């Protein structure tokens, strides 16, 4: 049997954590189905459906969307998460949209926080304003 067949075939591990190692720099849009751990530097948009962990050496600038965010490193930007935990070495500068925010002693947060309902209301208000503007343009045209 060939090297790619039979019992020796390695199966994909769908619940594995994706790792961006210390010393790595990534710019752009990252999307993972489960968990992501950042030990390096990331700039851009990150979507991790289950968990995003920024370790002590990790540094992220941009927008994060995840179910649970655990920060022991540095994050600057906007975060959308059900649960946010800032650990003792964690630093966040920016805006957090979350229903559950925990900050351990030593953890730092500089910015604004709102629950997810406020964010949804703001988006709906912007959508209504856009529709009104379109209707006004149609009437003028």
TrEMBL record:
Domain of life: Bacteria
UniProt xrefs under InterPro entries: BacA/B
Family: Belongs to the bactofilin family.
The name this protein goes by in its record: Polymer-forming cytoskeletal protein
Organism: Marinomonas sargassi
Source species taxonomy: Bacteria, Pseudomonadati, Pseudomonadota, Gammaproteobacteria, Oceanospirillales
């Amino acid at each position: 049997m060939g090297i790619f067949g039979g019992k020796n075939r390695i199966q994909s591990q769908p619940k594995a954590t994706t790792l961006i190692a210390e010393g790595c720099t990534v710019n752009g849009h990252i999307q993972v189905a489960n968990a992501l751990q950042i030990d390096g530097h990331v700039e851009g948009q990150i979507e991790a459906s289950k968990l995003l962990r920024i370790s002590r050496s990790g540094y992220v600038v941009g927008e994060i969307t995840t179910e649970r965010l655990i920060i022991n490193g540095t994050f600057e930007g906007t975060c959308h998460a059900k649960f946010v935990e800032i650990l003792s070495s964690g630093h966040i500068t920016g805006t957090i949209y979350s229903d559950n925010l925990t900050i351990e002693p030593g953890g730092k947060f500089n910015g604004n926080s709102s629950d997810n309902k406020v964010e949804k209301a703001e988006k709906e208000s912007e959508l209504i304003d856009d529709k009104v503007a379109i209707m006004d343009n149609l009437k003028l045209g």
